[in-house]
Amino acid sequence: MDPLLEACRRGDVESLRRAANFGPLDLRLADECGRTALHWAADGGHVEVAMALIKMGADVDAADDDGQTALHYAATCERAEMCRLLLESGADPDAEDADGDTPNALGAVGLAMRSPGAD
């Protein structure tokens, strides 16, 4: 696995920041299934990593090979705080994956409303 993707999978925000200090990162980089660094951060619930990626310009609506966005992953894994971050960053709750499922149907908005700091 690419070191950028691996750092995000592990939630290693320091490695991510160190890599960014050497120059711009290719945030469109994906693994063999089309998962980006943001997908991996969302899947693991690594909010600090996701925040850093978003600040660096990661596409919050990038889809993997099955059409799933980071918000699909966060909703499926019931990552409330991640759902909130992604929604506040402009992620589309109605983006359909290959099966026609949307993050909203998977409970993303409800989870976000239950996360700390939700109004």
UniProtKB/TrEMBL annotation:
Q: What is this protein called?
A: Ankyrin repeat protein
List the keywords (alphabetical): ANK repeat, Repeat
Q: Where is the composition biased (Acidic residues)?
A: 91-100
User: Where do the ANK repeat units fall?
Assistant: 33-65, 66-98
- Segments for region (Disordered): 91-119
InterPro entries, alphabetically?
Ankyrin_rpt, Ankyrin_rpt-contain_sf
Query: What is the superkingdom listed in this entry's lineage?
Result: Eukaryota
Gene3D superfamilies the UniProt entry points to: Ankyrin repeat-containing domain (1.25.40.20)
UniProt xrefs under Pfam families:
Ank_2
The species this protein was found in = Micromonas pusilla
